[in-house]
Structure formats: structure tokens, C-alpha cells
Predict the 3D structure of the following.
Amino acid sequence: MTRPALRDDGVLVVGAGVAGLAAAKRLRKHGVPVVVLEATRRIGGRAWTSLPPELDGAVFDHGATWLHAADRNPLAALERDRLLDVDASRTERLFVDGRPATPAEQAGYDAAWERLETVVAPALEGPDRTLAEAMRPMQDDPWAGTIATWEGAIIAAADADELGVQDWRRNTLEGPNLQPPEGIGAFVARRLAGPVWLHTGVSRLDWGGRLVRAETARGTVSAAAAIVTVSTGVLAADEIRFDPPLPPDVEAAIHALPMGLLTKVALHAPDRAASGIAANSLLVRRDGRMTFNAWTRDRPYVTGFVGGRTAWSLAGDDRAAVALAVEELRAMLGYGVRLSGRALVTGWGVDRWHRGAYAYARPGDAEQRAALAGSFVGERLLFAGEACRIDGLAGTVGGAYLSGQDAADRLLAG
């Protein structure tokens, strides 16, 4: 492949996830030469849609699944009329001890969610602590564990006893939650795709001279500036060597935002009618380790979500992950749901180029998102991605998109 001409005023974008694609699109719109370097063989990063044979070729999102906070999500605004409103179409089913919850148990569950707001409010005023510590006053509530698992491991991809309550509160996502029919990854690829050097990982980034130089297996590429959009997990693992080393405050911000893990286990279940469960159902079990999105858009599978330490313990062991999902689903539906035995397990925990699902902050580190977003190293090196958002969209494709645009705008303003 012929290397494109790149003037000294051009920009390197490292990573072709949503943040990188958004930054590149913004810069190109303003006539700035851009080279996007991507280590993997595809674009989209953690927004990835496939049509796996294990699931009869049905649409499956390995990573991002929804466009959250759609009323302020710029990606949702692109095609609002054709997106499915998940909240409006979803039915929540609650289970206790292998049976549907009674009306009294459902009322207790609803009351526990209302109590959560009252209990956590005082913790937001003092020194930062874990979400688990903030929830301690409701430890005797039979639904406390279920809520902690949902808010921590499932939503934040980190257990409640590791997640800082300030970061949790800032990133409590509101609806509407929308889905494109072709999947988030396919939607992102269609809307944001541009020229990208695939299978071109950056091993070293030299920002000490007049130009930024990126060393790759395909040679060295230079430009006036670079926007680095890889995950904090990749940065913390030193997959890219920075020369000279990054300033201590930037290194501190990277390590203060570790990657959480959320794993999906999709169980092929083509006969929904036998289960008696409606399409687009959310299945929740008291003290369960997983929650399930069942037959979304009547696709022939049920997806279990497992996060935090449990997800990390299963990383790389698909057989164990499937066994857990089957156990958890049977604990709710018994043998009323017919499984074919085929399954798909996402692998973000063992993926060298992502090293997790999305970033979270431990107690005392919530401000490090702003610190990383505000870094402009040597006036030629910026960072962008979902970890950099402080507007409540951290961990989302909408947040990544805005972060990439913000980084591009800072270069354009300079």
C-alpha cells in the first residue's frame, strides 16, 4: 500500500475506535490531512457488530449495545427516527428462588431502588468512598446485593466495592436508550468510516522533536500532532512506548482509570414461544450473578451479562462462562427455555488491543477523567476516548464520539 502524503501540519490518530473515527472525520472536514493507525483488522473498536453462525447469523453486538442518553447523544441524533426505543419496548421480569417474584417482592425491589437514592446522597457530600460503602445503610435490604451488582459489575463493569461513588454518580445514565437495527458496530462503521491503516499497531510514539513520529510494523509515520484514542488498559500496559516518557500527571491519570470488564454470553435459543417470555425482556434474579436481555428484536438468542471480578475470573474460559450463563438462566426459567447448545462469549478481557470493556474510577480518582482529557503534552499530543468524559457519558460510544471531536477541535483551535 502506498503511504499517503502527509504535510507537517497533518495529524496522526492512533486507534480507529469511535473516538478516533470521530476525530478523523472532524479534522478532514476542515481540510486537515489525517492518518488513522489501527492495530486490529477492523474499525469501531469496542463497537463491533457481527453475524455469527452460532446465532444463526443474527445481528450481535460484541461490545456497545445501546445509544444511551439519546436526548443528548449526538450519535442518536443522526438517525433518531429509525432507532428502536429499548425502554419503551422492554419488559422486565423479576425472579426469586427459581420463580417469578410475587407482587410484594416486586414492590420491595422497587422500594429498594428508591431507597438507594436516599442512602447514597450523604456519601456524595463527604470524602469519596466506594459505592458498596455508600450503600452500607441498606445492607439488610434483601435487594441490596442485586442493586449493587447491577450498578457496579453490570453497568460500571467494576464491583461496587471497587467503584468510587463519585464516578458512579456522575455516570448514572439516563434514557432514552436506543438501538439501530443493524447493530451499534455496523451503525458506527456506516456513519464514521474513513481511510484507515488497518493492522498497523503503534509500538513507539516519539513526541520529543518538531514532529510526532509513530513507529509501526509498516514503517514510521510523522505529523505535526497526534491524538491517542486507545484504551487506558492498553496505555497502562505500555503497548505504546512514549519517547520521551509521558509526564507524571498524565501517567497518573492513565493508571487511575483502570479498565472494567463486562462480558456477554449469548445462548442460542431459537424457540422463544416455549419459554413464555416476551421478546425484548430483561431478566433479573435476586442475588444473581448475571442479568439477561432475552430475544432482543426477537433474535434467536438470550444474552447474559456478567461483569467485574466474576467476568475477569472467566476471561479466556468460554466453557466456564457458558456454564455459568446456563446455570443462571435455568435458575430463572428452569427448563422452559430450550437451548441448542450453541453459544458465543465476548473476549474483551483477553483482547490485547482493548484489555477490558471501559474505564472506571476508584474512590478519589473521579477527577482523573478530566485530567486525561485536558492533557496536551508538548502541545502536540492529546488523548481521547470514553475514559475522558466528565459529562456523564463515560463508558459509552456517545462519550467516545464527543471526546474525539473535542480533541480535534482543540487542534483546530491551536
Notes: DSSP finds 14 helices and 22 strands in the chain. The two ends are 32 Å apart (CA to CA). The longest strand covers residues 262-268.
